[in-house]
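Hi V.,

Quick status before I head out on leave. The structure for the redesign project is tokenized and pasted below; the design run finished overnight.
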């Protein structure tokens, strides 16, 4: 009986200790939930303020500043407040060292997850294991939790926010004028963005040669890669002004089409430059014609395959919605249209292509065939 009583008492103590730790973990989870709600509330207030500002500018017919520019200013102000104001939620950092040092040297990349054995409060012989997921390189070790939560995840933008934007752009596009000016649009997007990338990259390289501290750290290919990244422009403010002023539809189609395609061109061009540097360039650092031609082939192939995937998926979507009875159910037809377009984006991205071009031509092809 005494032995049974001791076992029951030990179990109750371990359960109580585990419960205390679990309560603190629940409090930590609740704090994270409150921070997420606070960030979403902040973003919602920014959107409300932007909508009211747009109404005020349109009502007062103010022309000295467009509402999109003021929305950017709002974001900068709020971001500065979050960045430079104090916070009561600092992050806890624990340096982690593997038990086997040779195991760390055998890894070519950081591990995907870390398993941390953490002692239960009040019980030195009881540990719980917690997993931590790889997020990327840490630049600022002094970040607090609010800064971390407010930092926008680029994967959310590229995989969730960007596809509906391109879908709406392709759906609302005046296809007659877009395809009528497709040659000029492709000229501006392909040749114009390429020329801009090389001009900016060359100027950046010349500037780096004039700075002794930076001269040895960057190559000409690094400068070209930088030029390819910043060359594409998104004239959202100009398009909004065009929409308000009801400008010529051909001019609108040219500016809009170039702004949609130049992002894809820049992505493909930067990838081609990276391939030239990492896989094709010799160790001598000299120019190689074969490597250059292969990079150009990658550029043309990725863009063409992205366009082909979009056109094929668009035709399949049009056939499904046109020659089946799903058109008798408008809600199902709309859902199928959206899901097929989003699938096109994901197929292109999973194939190392550009989803922007694919989803744009998928929507345009679907509406054109229908």
């Amino acid at each position: 009986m005494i032995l049974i009583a001791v076992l029951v008492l030990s179990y109750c103590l371990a359960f109580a200790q585990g419960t205390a730790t679990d309560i603190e973990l629940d409090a930590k989870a609740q704090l994270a939930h409150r921070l997420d709600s606070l960030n979403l509330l902040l973003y919602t207030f920014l959107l409300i303020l932007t909508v009211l500002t747009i109404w005020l500018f349109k009502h007062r017919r103010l022309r000295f500043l467009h509402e999109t520019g003021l929305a950017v200013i709002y974001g900068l102000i709020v971001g500065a407040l979050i960045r430079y104001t104090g916070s009561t939620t600092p992050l806890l950092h624990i340096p982690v060292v593997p038990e086997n040092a040779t195991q760390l040297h055998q890894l070519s990349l950081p591990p995907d997850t870390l398993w941390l054995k953490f002692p239960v409060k009040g019980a030195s012989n009881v540990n719980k294991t917690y997993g931590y997921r790889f997020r990327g390189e840490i630049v600022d070790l002094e970040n607090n939790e609010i800064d971390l939560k407010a930092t926008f995840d680029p994967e959310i933008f590229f995989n969730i926010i960007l596809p509906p934007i391109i879908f709406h752009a392709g759906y609302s596009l005046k296809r007659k004028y877009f395809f009528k000016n497709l040659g000029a649009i492709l000229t501006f997007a392909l040749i114009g963005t390429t020329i801009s990338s090389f001009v900016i990259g060359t100027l950046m390289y010349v500037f780096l040669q004039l700075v002794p501290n930076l001269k040895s750290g960057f190559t000409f290919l690094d400068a070209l890669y930088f030029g390819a990244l910043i060359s594409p422009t998104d004239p959202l403010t100009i398009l909004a002004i065009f929409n308000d002023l009801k400008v010529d539809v051909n001019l609108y189609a040219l500016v809009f089409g170039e702004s949609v395609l130049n992002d894809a061109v820049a992505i493909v061009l930067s990838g081609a430059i990276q391939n030239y540097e990492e896989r094709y360039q010799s160790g001598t650092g000299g120019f190689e014609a074969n490597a250059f031609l292969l990079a150009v082939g990658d550029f043309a192939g990725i863009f063409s395959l992205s366009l082909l995937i979009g056109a094929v998926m668009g035709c399949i979507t049009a056939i499904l919605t046109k020659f089946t009875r799903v058109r008798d159910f408008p809600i199902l037809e709309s859902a199928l249209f959206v899901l097929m377009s989003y699938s096109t984006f994901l197929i292109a991205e999973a194939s190392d292509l550009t989803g922007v071009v694919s989803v744009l031509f998928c929507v345009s092809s679907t509406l054109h065939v229908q």
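Above is the designed sequence. The mean pLDDT is 76.

G. will cover questions while I'm gone.

Best,
W.
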